[in-house]
Amino acid sequence: MNSSIKSLSAVFITTIFLLLISSCGESKQQQMIHQAVKIETSDECHLCGMMISEFSGPKGEIYRKEEGTVKKFCSTRDMFSYYLDPENKRNVSQLLVHDMSKMPWDKLNDDFFIDAKTAWFVAGSSKTGAMGKTLASFSKKEDATAFAKEYGGKVINFKQITLDVLL
After folding, report:
1. In a domain, 151, yes or no
2. pLDDT of residue 65
3. pTM, whole model, 2 decimals?
């Protein structure tokens, strides 16, 4: 009888463990990351209305929760100007920016979008985007540091981006 209780206990503990693990997997799936939407030649910036593909520098995309839509921006500066508005901020599910370590400043590739919340940025460099000064975006801090060494500016993370930084 004692070995039966031990076996039942082991089965019970294993079942609980498997249920906990499977529920963790479901929460990761619920936090699905959106794929970047290709920037077409006719796409206009959601903030300023300029043709996105006519300008150099990193671009941005924002996914809105309630609409399930993507908003495209001609520069990271415009994207963050939009995002930092409290009304918009609470309705954003994801922000994407180009990884500028993977492509030339003047020839963007939509295969290299990264999550802006984990990216590193260079503010105040000599490189400009559609709206003048912009935030250069990188997936790795060392790439941002190398960029800042060559073009000036300060390396910051997502949480450090404020309206003052954009000015």
Report:
1. yes
2. 87
3. 0.79
